[in-house]
Structure formats: structure tokens, C-alpha cells
Write a structure and sequence with these properties.
This protein has 317 residues and is mainly alpha-helical. It has a domain of 218 residues: Orthogonal Bundle (MetI-like fold). 76% of the residues lie in helices and 0% in strands. 31% of the residues are buried. It is globular. Helix 5 packs antiparallel against helix 12. It has 16 helices and no strands.
């Protein structure tokens, strides 16, 4: 177990290093830079453009800028945003907090609902309830995020007037003010979460019901309810741990489409703006932060699965 954790940590550090290099190169090859995005039409003046690049350190070689940024990141110095001229730690801190609020709200609603509906669908295989739940899940999985988000705004915000269509609070607004604007984004994310997790749980329940130990328990006359609680549920929910981990990592990574449609001040929306502004230090910081979250959540999910199912240790050792 310890050797597995150390190996995963080592590969995670290598992955973060590769991510930083890839993001740096990707932004460098894009046409323009932070100064052309910041100056607009004034960038056509070579003197003004050269002065801006000199002032913001863009005139130094790319490899030197990457080394300086990486050294500062390791020391906790995230630098200053080229476009906004503000500390990156402040910009990312508020936006990531908002994304965590949205991800936590959607997880608390969506994950338990998906598990319950998945178990119900699996136990009612090929019955009307299973057909209805499975059809709804497939339908939700095929709808693009921007379509479902737009429909929710049209129906519940514009048509019925039950809630706000877009988020109007600032990025540093109090959490209570922010949460009152997360109803529709939470619903949009919950639809996607429930659809994917429900399908996996349903399949796991069906496979477990067809296993030899469940068949033997039925032949011995064990009540079906006891079989479900003692055997089916524990063995069926284990495979969903990794998918739940991936889902949480996806939410914490900033759901770009959902945050953009609802004007939600999260890390996903900030990443889009940073790329548009060619704000390289901000783009790199967000990319490494999201990569770290993704790797960390998946590592915890793997360790939890290993702890609950010791048989997996043999396969992954």
C-alpha cells in the first residue's frame, strides 16, 4: 500500500511538471500575447508594444520566464496577473472558493440521488421504473451542457420567474449571497452527475444480483431484503467510488460551459478569460491548480477503493 502511494505521488509530480510545460508552450504559440490583448488598437504602435513587453517581462526568453515562474510557484509566489495587475493568489483564491461552493452543493444533491436511483433501477431491471430511469439518464447524457443550461434559464428564470437566470454577485461576495444564486447551476450539474453515476450503479447492481454468492444465498432461503442490504449494496457501490472521484474532480476543475452560461464567478470562467487575455502566469497557475486537484481527488478515490476492497491490492500491486 505504501509503495503504491509513493509511486502514485511520484507520477503525480511528473504529471504536474509536464502540464506546466505543455500549458506554457501552448500559450506561447498562440498569436499575440498579454500586451496585444491589453493594449488593443494601441498595440499597432511598435514603441508602445515594446515598452509594454519590457515592463511585463515578455521580452526575456521564454525558457527564462518559465524557470522564474516555476521557482516562484514552488516557493508559494504565484506572481501578478499581466492583464489585471493583481496578485494571482487573490484572483484564484476567490474564484476557486466559488467553484468549491458550487461543486459541494452539486455533490451533496447529485451523488446520493444518483446512488439511490441507480440501486432502484438495478433492482427493478427491465421493469417500467428501470426503463424510465435508464431512458432519462441516457437523455441527460446526450444533451450538451450549454443546451440544458439554456433551457433551465428559459423555463425557470424567464418563463416561471422562480430564480435568477444568471449570477449577478461579485467573485468575493459572501457565501450565503453566492449560494442563493447557485440553484440553476446546481440543477444543470446534477443532471449530468446523476446520469453517469446512475448508469454505473445500475449495472453493478445487476451484475451483483447475478453473482454466485447471491444465488447461493437465495437457495438457502435468505430474505431478499437482507441479501440486498448485506451483499448487493456493498459490492455494487464499490465500483462507483472511482467514478464519484472523477465527478468531484470534474466539478472542482471548474465546469467551464456551465459557469460561462450562468455567469458564475468560478475558476472555470476565470480560466477562459485568462486564455483570452494571454495572461500566461494566470493560465499556468490555474492549470497546475486544477491538475493538482484532479490528481489528488483520484488518488484519494483509489486509496478508498483499496481500503474497502482488499482484493484490489493484489491487482494493483
Amino acid at each position: 500500500m505504501i509503495r503504491l502511494v509513493l509511486r502514485r505521488l511520484g507520477s503525480s509530480l511528473v504529471t504536474l511538471l509536464i502540464v506546466s510545460v505543455v500549458i506554457f508552450v501552448a500559450v506561447e504559440v498562440l498569436p499575440g500575447d498579454a500586451c496585444t490583448a491589453y493594449l488593443g488598437r494601441a498595440a499597432k504602435d511598435p514603441t508602445i508594444l515594446a515598452a509594454c513587453r519590457e515592463n511585463r517581462g515578455l521580452s526575456t526568453p521564454a525558457i527564462v520566464r518559465w524557470v522564474d515562474w516555476a521557482a516562484g510557484f514552488v516557493q508559494g509566489d504565484l506572481g501578478v496577473s499581466m492583464k489585471r495587475n493583481k496578485p494571482i493568489a487573490d484572483l484564484v483564491g476567490w474564484r476557486f472558493r466559488n467553484t468549491v461552493v458550487l461543486a459541494l452543493t452539486a455533490s451533496l444533491v447529485g451523488i446520493p440521488l444518483a446512488l439511490v436511483l441507480g440501486v432502484m433501477a438495478g433492482l427493478a431491471r427491465d421493469r417500467p421504473l428501470d426503463i424510465a430511469l435508464s431512458s432519462g439518464a441516457i437523455f441527460a447524457m446526450t444533451i450538451p451542457d450549454f443546451v440544458s443550461a439554456t433551457v433551465l434559464i428559459l423555463v425557470f428564470a424567464i418563463g416561471l420567474g422562480w430564480t435568477n437566470g444568471v449570477v449577478t454577485v461579485s467573485a468575493n461576495a459572501p457565501i450565503l449571497d453566492l449560494m442563493s444564486n447557485t440553484v440553476l447551476p446546481t440543477v444543470a450539474l446534477t443532471l449530468v452527475m446523476v446520469a453517469h453515476i446512475l448508469r454505473l450503479v445500475r449495472t453493478s447492481v445487476i451484475d451483483t444480483l447475478q453473482s454466485d454468492f447471491v444465488t447461493m444465498a437465495r437457495l438457502k432461503g435468505v430474505p431478499f431484503r437482507r441479501i440486498v442490504w448485506r451483499h448487493v449494496l456493498p459490492n455494487s457501490l464499490l465500483p462507483s467510488i472511482n467514478l464519484i472521484g472523477l465527478t468531484i474532480a470534474w466539478l472542482l476543475g471548474g465546469v467551464v460551459v456551465t459557469e460561462t452560461v450562468f455567469n458564475y464567478p468560478g475558476i472555470g470562467r476565470l480560466s477562459v478569460d485568462a486564455v483570452s487575455d494571454r495572461d500566461l502566469p494566470l493560465v499556468q497557475t490555474i492549470a497546475l491548480l486544477l491538475a493538482s486537484v484532479y490528481i489528488g481527488v483520484n488518488l484519494l478515490a483509489d486509496l478508498l477503493a483499496l481500503a474497502l476492497n482488499p482484493r484490489l491490492r493484489t491487482y494493483r500491486a
